[in-house]
Amino acid sequence: MSPNVSGNGITGGAWSIARRLTLLYAISTTGLLLLAAGFLFWVLKQNLEAREHALLISKVEVLRQLLQEEPDKSEVLASEVEHEASASHLLRYFMRILDGQGRLLFETGNMAKLLPVEIFPVPGASPETPDAEKRWDSASGSAFLLMSASSLAKEGQRTLQLALDVSQDQTLLANYRRTLVAVLIFGILFAAGAGFLIAQKGLAPLGAVTKATQRITASQLHERIAVSEWPAELIELASAFDAMLDRLQDSFNRLSQFSADLAHELRTPINNLRGEAEVALSRTRNLDEYQQILASSLEEHERLSRMIDGLLFIARADNPGAALDRIWFDARREVEAVREFYQALAGEQEVEICIEGAAWLRGDPALFRRAASNLLANSLQHTPAKGSINVSLRASDALPVAVDVRDTGNGIAVEHLPRIFDRFYRADRSRSQVGGGFGLGLAIVMSIMRLHGGTASIQSTQGKGTTVTLHFSEGSASPPTVEDVKNVI
Q1: Which of 88, 149, 191, 409 could potentially form a cystine with 382 if both were Cys, beta carbons 3.0 to 4.6 Å apart?
Q2: How far apart are alpha carbons 148 and 136 in whole angstroms?
Q3: pLDDT tens digits, residue range 242-266?
């Protein structure tokens, strides 16, 4: 079953990041505490067992030394076995000595009842054999460490049986184990609580991002996330979010400006059409007058048609999925074809159009001709009589192909240059209106360049002229070879 989504976030089966981090903190802390507790318990147990073993070994060595003394030392041996062990208040241990036939020679008092002979491990056959030992629990609940050893005496082979009461050590280990369990439980609870607080504190900036997101509307795109002393990852997230808002605000502003410009541009021809229709209907007119009115209306229709075509082209070009059928073509030949189209108009305006250089481009030749046509039309519109327009094609193996369109017109003021490629933007609205332009020519040029993976730039000086440069990403100074075409394919 998928989680439910509400206006406040995701509910149902989904876990919050804070809960997940808390669980991870608790699991990692549990693992660490288990390892530490297990290691400490193991070290303590090893130390206690080593101490117990060392104590019995030391007693075995004492007994072996006494057994190898002269017979008149037997009283000392009996005292060591029968009285010394029972006299100790700190350690409770027992000792027994048997002869070669297993008969009892000496033992600590009460040892026969507590620790029968048969419960002890079998010692080695010779004194050099390592001592045998084992642990044994009595019926009364006491725990003992039992050790058997062989020894040589003046009278022959002897068997030594020693027992150490390790009940206190077992009790110590049990108490220590319970303490570790309590510490482990407390540590897990503490880790869960601390992990939750840390997660909440660490995720607090995400709450600020959420609140900022909730405040953002179409009229509140100026809202930004105030980046403070946050972790580096969240600073990057907040900065990326603010950058996204900048792009959204810029796009929204452009869209609003585009809508306003579009409404303004459509209003003029529509008002003209309406006015002409009102004039035609104001009284009965003859055929010539109606034809004149229709011809004037047709001009406005053509103006609207060109505007709509331009907007549709820009919309298609701005689509990220738009693709071109790229081929290699001679850029100079395409420019010469455009010049031939405008040659008659240039002659009427006494403007000279010159072409220099050569270049080969990989792209759409029809779109290239449209870009060149828009630039030449724009230059002819703003270049006075006796002026000139120069188209220069530059290409080399080290640099991308560039096409310069330079005129000797009046130029454009510096404050207009940043927006000169915007839709419907005109640096000189009065002159453009007279010439019939509506501010889409350069916007179309920029869209064409983006489709080709290139860009366009402009330089202008008032009173001297303007230069528009098209920068193409794929091109060469010489015709492509068959290998170049194969590589492209």
Answers
A1: 409
A2: 13
A3: 788 788 877 777 777 667 766 766 7
Give the pLDDT of residue 228: 63
* Rounded-to-integer distance, Cα 393 and Cα 476, Å: 11
Domain 232-317 classification at class level: mainly alpha
| Superfamily (CATH) of domain 327-488 | Histidine kinase-like ATPase, C-terminal domain (3.30.565.10)
Q: How far is CA 39 from CA 43, 340, 367, in A?
A: 6, 93, 77
Q: Assess whether pLDDT exceeds 90 at residue 43.
A: yes
Q: What is the pLDDT of residue 389?
A: 92
For 280, the token pair is 């035609």
Distance between CA 374 and CA 403 in Å, rounded?
A: 13
Tens digit of pLDDT for each residue in 406-463? 999 888 888 888 888 877 776 665 444 444 455 778 888 888 888 888 889 999 888 8
Q: In what order do the strands lie in the sheet with 360-363?
A: 327-330, 360-363, 475-476
CB-based contact 168:51 (threshold 8 Å)? no
Instruction: Round the CA-based radius of gyration of the chain to a whole number and report it.
Output: 51
Distance, CA of 23 to CA of 193 (rounded, Å)? 10
**Mean residue pLDDT across the chain:** 79
- The domain ranges of the chain are 1-202, 232-317, 327-488
Query: For residue 39, is pLDDT > 90?
Result: yes
**Predicted TM-score (pTM) of this structure:** 0.49
CA distance 83 to 89: 12
12 Rama sector, left if φ>0, alpha if ψ -120 to 50, beta otherwise: left
Which residue in this structure is represented by tokens 């689509």?
Answer: 319
Kindly report the number of other CB atoms within 10 A of residue 124's CB atom.
14
